[in-house]
Every structure is written in C-alpha cells, then in structure tokens.
Amino acid sequence: MPVKKIAPVITVFCYHPRFHEFYVAADLKFYFNRHTGSFEMDQHPHSDPFPVPVELHNTADAGILQFDTVYRGQQTTYELTALHPWDIVIFNLVREISHADFTFHDDDKDKIELIFEGGDLSKIYFYKHEDDQLIDSLRIVRYEGSLHLVRQRPFTRIPLKGLVLEGNQLLAHTATEIIQYTLHTQPFILGIMKQLLENIQLSSV
Questions:
Q1: Burial category of 126 from C-beta neighbours within 10 Å (exposed 0-12, middle 13-18, buried 19 and up)
Q2: In the predicted structure, residue 205 carries a pLDDT above the cut 80
Q3: Which residues have CB under 8 Å from 16's CB, separation 6+?
Q4: Average pLDDT in the 121-140 region?
Q5: Which of the four pLDDT bands, split at 50, 70 and 90, describes residue 1?
Q6: pLDDT category of residue 204 using cuts at 50, 70 and 90
Q7: Pairing relation of β-strands 178-182 and 133-143?
Q8: Which pLDDT tens digit goes with each residue over 61-94?
Q9: What is the pLDDT of residues 150-177, one digit of tens each?
Q10: How far is residue 158's CA from residue 55's CA, in Å, rounded to a whole number?
C-alpha cells in the first residue's frame, strides 16, 4: 500500500456554525461529518469538497497522525508529522472528535478562522452574524514579521504587544489600549482555540 508522508506547512482551524461547516487542515483538509461525528479527508481541497472516511491508526507519538483512506481509487496510508505545537492540537482533534460529543449549536454566532503558516500564527478572522446580518468582526494578520490588528475605516494596521484568550474574550493588547472581542461560540470551540494560541509569537523579527 502506498504511503504518503507529509510535514504540514499550513495549518488551519475553521468553524462556520451558520452553515454547519467545521474543518481543519494540516496541509490535508479534514471536514467534520455531523452524521458520523468524525473528520473525513477532502480529496478535492482546491475545488468542491469531496470528503472520504479515514481509518485512524493507533500511534504512541502524539506528533504523528497516521490513517488509511481511498485516494484516487487506491487504498493509501498517510503519515503526517507535526512540526509545531498547533499541528499536534489538530492531530488530537481529528483523533478525539468522535468521543467529544461535539454538535453544532444554533446560538453560536461567530465564524472563526485561524491560519498558521511560516512557522507561526499568520491570520485570525472573526465574523459575527445575527439574523443574517454581520454585526461585528475582527481581523489580525502577520505583517512584516509581527501580528497586527487591522481596522478598515480608516485603514490601519496596529502592532500587537499581547494576545490572549480569556474565557470567551480575545484581548488584543496594543501600545495604548486593550481591544476586546467577545466570541459567541460554544466552550468546546473556545477550548481548542485556547490550545492553538498558547504557543504563538507576537513577533518573529
């Protein structure tokens, strides 16, 4: 059986409750199937999703995710090796989601996307909807090696001195103020986010 070995370069966590969409990526993209309560690998990550079931291997090393699946009609084994702490968080999530009793909550309002690349957190996007209306948002991006909060009117990038998730509050510390964003999402999602953000660097310069 062919074995594909991957050391992830891009890691993504995305939760979109309005459309019952939950996916993660460690180079490979995995969609949550709410009918089976498990993640499935997307065979078409750059077009319309085509998730297929995976059979996970038991591995002693938390930094390795092994599984079998069908790829292009052929049974294939994948082996992902973590390069960073957030990769291990994603691997554990894929392994453990079926035992987590996770479901989509109708009162979750925030679309959440965290993207890690280049060896650190590169983007945070939050979009809060209520009654199909966008009522709040937050964008943080890595620019010239440092994390910045982005404001649109007028367009400005504000360097961050600190970034922490406390309960459902994301606190972005600048040189002059603390900008607070309240997340309306379930504790399970907040718990994964907290793990993902524990090892980031504000500046890689």
A1: buried
A2: no
A3: 22, 111, 112
A4: 96
A5: confident
A6: low
A7: unpaired
A8: 999 999 999 988 889 999 999 999 999 999 999 9
A9: 998 889 999 999 999 999 999 999 999 9
A10: 44
Q: Which two tokens stand for residue 33?
A: 């199937």
How many helices (H) does the chain have, and how many strands (E)? Answer: 2, 17
Task: List Cβ<8 Å contacts ≥24 apart for 126-130.
Answer: 126/170, 126/181, 126/183, 128/184, 129/18
Of 41, 72, 63, which is closest to residue 54 (Cα–Cα)? 41
70 residue type, one letter: V
Tokens of 97: 């989601």
Distances (CA, A) of 86 to 2, 12, 130: 27, 9, 30
The gap between the terminal CA atoms of the chain, to the nearest Å, is: 43
The two structure tokens encoding residue 177: 């103020």
List the beta bridge partners of residue 153: none
Pick from 181, 177, 137: which is nearest to 159 by CA? 177
What is the Rg, in whole angstroms, of the alpha carbon atoms belonging to the chain? 18
Mind giving me the DSSP string for 3-18? EEEE--S-EEEEEEGG
Surface-to-core class of residue 60, CB atoms within 10 Å of its CB (0-12 exposed, 13-18 middle, 19+ buried) = exposed
152 burial level (CB within 10 Å; 0-12, 13-18, 19+): exposed
Amino acid at 78: Y
What is the sign, positive or negative, of the torsion defined by CA atoms of 55, 57, 62, 64?
negative
Q: Do 128 and 184 contact (CB within 8 A), yes or no?
A: yes
